[in-house]
Amino acid sequence: MKKNKMTGVMTPILTPFNDDLSFAPDLYISHAKWLLEQGIHFIAPFGTTGEALSMTVTERMAAVDEMVNNGIDPAVLMPGAGLCNLDDTVTLCRHAIEKGCRAVMTLPPFFYKNASDDGLYAYFVRLIETVNLPDLRICMYHIPPLAGIGFSPSLAGRLAGDFPDIFVAYKDSSGDFENTKAVIDAAPSVAVFPGSELFLKEGIEHGGMGCISATCNVNPAAIRCVYDVATGAQTDDLDKINNEMVGFRKTVEGYGPIPAMKGMLAVKRGEPRWRNVRPPIMPASSANTEKLLQEIGDRLTLL
Asked: Does residue 46 contact residue 28 with C-beta atoms inside 8 Å?
């Protein structure tokens, strides 16, 4: 068992865009700082929630630079770095490492849906050898509902066993808690994070380290509170606050999380640019945002 695992609540931060759909660094930095003020432990730029695959490699690196240059500690950052070709993935990994980021969150090369565990293992060996930097730390990003391929428990265990100082974390966005438990068992040195706060409490009870969840963008303090109570750092009625948190999540899920959360931020912060998304995602309508905000009611603490 590895000591000093990553642990806590991590936000796959939304990416704001200007009206011409260029990156909006001012909104990005202010949102990142607010998340940290609300108690988030780590920020994961360029996960699914951050519309990562709608952004170029250059844009991703520039966004990380903006955060670091504006006073955000790179030790709390875990940028997404997994693309289908090795060179771009290497570029993103090296950039994150050189900036001092805690780790990179890496998809498998996801175009080839029938790739075997042996094939994926060979890919990551080549990635490690090509990056060739001692501070490389990888969070395996498992999201087969969108990627169509992922890190099986046995592959996670094999990679962590052979490269224990590199494969340090696993984000499980399968939506299947049985898979989460299987990874915890197969790769005990790895910090395993369910990809939704729906499994935060249960995950901690089974050896998980917290969660990496989209709705940390709009409900961070409540999610942090559940984490603190579940880990014994704070006293409260765990079942009550967990049920409230789960209810919030399910409400947002019903509206399509990325445009829904951006619509909420646009209204609550008086900044229309927050509503912008890059196609093929479409922005939430004003009517849907109003309806969602009514359903959320006083549970929303956005500044």
From this structure: no
